[in-house]
């Protein structure tokens, strides 16, 4: 199975900060990577697919980059309602594994 | 409005089976895979498997092989996920989610509690 490792596991940042979350795959996955946001008590919500494609309706402050084994999710200017846990997921090969999550707190 | 509507909460005894449903609304079920993902209390997301509702083919994560079955009923636009030989480790929220390979529409989740 492909292992997905996110860093950091937790992150605290101020409103307006630029925030970056990293996701590393244990083997190359091309650009077959998605990012999800999950707020407490809610289902996950798709933010990014194919590493850098923004899902419709997702604010432009979210962006994704990378290919191969290293990927990043960037929030250009952190907003209070961005507090959530963020997960990457590879879909290059079944099983479609998730990272362990990054919990982002807004100061 | 495109959505997937999941069945209600379940409480099961260890050793029992649970069968959850997920109904596609606002789109044609057979045009997208349906994934199942679970989340144990306070834990991350775990991909369980998917079903292609068009032909019924499935792909399951290895750790669930032998006790996980996904089926579909195209006449009611519904997919089902049955998990057998339940233990307390199966206590979780179970999500179904529409997708090709990534998941763009998620259900609200079904809580399954396994307790004696």
Instruction: Give helix and strand order of chain A, one letter per element, not per position.
Output: EEEEEEEEEE
Cα end-to-end separation of chain B: 40 Å
Structural class of chain B: mainly beta
Question: How many DSSP H or I helices of chain A?
Answer: 0
Classification by helices and strands of chain A? mainly beta
**Strand/helix succession of chain B:** EEEEEEEEEEE
For the largest interface, the chains and their residue counts are: A-B, 23 and 21 residues
Instruction: Give the helix level of chain B as a range of percent.
Output: under 10%
Average per-residue pLDDT of chain B, rounded, comes to: 97
- Quaternary structure classification: heterodimer
Q: State the helix count of chain B.
A: 0
> How many strand elements of chain A?
10
Structure description:
The complex is a heterodimer of chains A (about 110) and B (about 120). In chain A, strand 4 (about 35-40) and strand 5 (about 45-50) form a beta hairpin. The model of chain A has no long low-confidence stretch (mean pLDDT about 95). Chain A has no helices and 10 strands. Chain A is an all-beta fold. Chain B has about 120 residues and is mainly β. Chain B has no helices and 11 strands. Classes of the chains: A mainly beta (about 110), B mainly beta (about 120). The interface between A and B is medium-sized, with 23 and 21 residues.
């Amino acid at each position: 199975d492909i292992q997905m490792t996110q860093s950091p596991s937790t992150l605290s940042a101020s409103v307006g900060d630029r925030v970056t979350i990293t996701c590393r795959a244990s083997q190359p996955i091309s650009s077959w990577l998605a990012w999800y946001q999950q707020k407490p008590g809610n289902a996950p919500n798709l933010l990014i697919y194919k590493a850098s494609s923004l899902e419709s309706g997702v604010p432009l402050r979210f962006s994704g980059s990378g290919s191969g084994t290293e990927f990043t999710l960037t929030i250009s200017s952190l907003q209070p309602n961005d507090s959530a846990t963020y997960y990457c997921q590879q879909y290059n090969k079944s099983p479609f594994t998730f990272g362990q999550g990054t919990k982002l707190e807004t100061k | 409005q495109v959505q997937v509507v999941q069945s209600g909460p379940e409480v099961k005894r260890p050793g029992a089976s649970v069968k959850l449903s997920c109904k596609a609304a606002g789109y044609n079920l057979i045009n997208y895979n349906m994934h199942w993902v679970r989340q144990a209390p306070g834990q991350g997301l775990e991909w369980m498997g998917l079903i292609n509702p068009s032909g019924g083919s499935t792909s399951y994560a290895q750790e669930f092989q032998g006790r996980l079955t996904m089926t579909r009923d195209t006449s009611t636009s519904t997919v089902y996920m049955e998990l057998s030989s339940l233990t307390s480790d199966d206590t979780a929220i179970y999500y179904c989610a529409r997708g090709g390979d990534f998941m763009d529409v998620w259900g609200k989740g079904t809580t399954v509690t396994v307790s004696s």
